[in-house]
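User: My collaborator sent over this chain with a note saying "see what the structure looks like." That's all I know about it. Can you take a look?
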Amino acid sequence: MNDNEQRTNILEKFYSWLGFSRPKTAISFLIISLVFLIGLIYYSSTLVKLINNQHNQLTILSEEIKKDDQIFTILHSKDIKVIKLKGLDINPAGYGKIYLSQKLNSGVIEVSNLPPSANGSDYQLWLIENGKPISASIFNVNRPDTLSYFNIRSDGIDSIASIESFEVTVEPQGGVQQPTGPIYLLGSPSEQ
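Assistant: Without extra context I'll predict from the sequence alone. Here is the result:
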């Protein structure tokens, strides 16, 4: 038996072992199986991407719910104090409110009619305490015609009662250590 006959004999035994009587049938089956496998792999990778995308959206929604829950807790606090913010000459139609809870030592800022945040900039809320500005919130506004709520950070504040005024300025994206931009909203607890 020569090498070709021996290879043919081995292939025939292999095809027979697979359950095929003819080599062409076995090759067709293998090609169809390979195409099916490639399709299955593609479909699986598409499903994995879809699941990852859904997981990311779920994480974002979970964070939004957590933020909304914090805002809800502050807004429904029994000791809430409201400070009105007025728009200045740069944006007289703008307005807002600060909701402070002495008990929770935290608050919420509500803003409306502020121009959308320009590319590369954010709004920054400043609490003025003993003449010194303290950054309390960095936010951006995408829809100026709707009310937007943002949490106020109270770290670095001696007491909510010691706050002299509130300012909302436009600053470089991510915020700054000291106010540098124009003031869009201004309010003071003593004016309430």
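A starting point for your reply to your collaborator: The beta strands are 80-87, 95-101, 106-112, 121-129, 132-139, 148-152, 163-172, 183-187.
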